[in-house]
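In keeping with the milestone schedule agreed at the kick-off meeting, the structural modelling team has produced records for the first pair of proteins. Each record is given below as a sequence line and a structure-token line. The laboratory manager (R.T.) confirmed that both were archived under the project's standard naming scheme.
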Amino acid sequence: MTNWGDQILIYDLNTGKPIDFFSVLNFYYASGVEAVPTITWLN
């Protein structure tokens, strides 16, 4: 089994549309073009 890390889909609650996808599958995050975002988890 391979661990690919977190897969997080961020979407706008008002429009119901996705606005970002944090994952190693996202080229911009995986290649280091985009900085890793600060994630604040809701309780």
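The second protein of the pair:
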Amino acid sequence: MSEPSAGESEKAIANTPAWQNEEVFGKVEELAHQIRISISEACQKGYERRDLIFLIQLLLKDFSAIKGSPFRPAIDNVITTESAKYGFINLSAVELEEVWKEV
């Protein structure tokens, strides 16, 4: 068998579901890590609800490809879990939706 051409490789990556794309998966892991750190710091600094939402919006801005991906519920879960872990501000479903709006 011959090696696929560069064009064929790119098509294969483009047609790969997001959850199977290593680059997207790496970005999801990076975002989850940044959210964990940010929520921990926000708790330590006594951020209010509005400030926390804005902080998360700023993080998500750099990861806009995740918004429409199957990973979004996982990121929502990270936000909810980390907030609860610190006994911090619990965001409602409406507020979780708000964090995904562009700032």
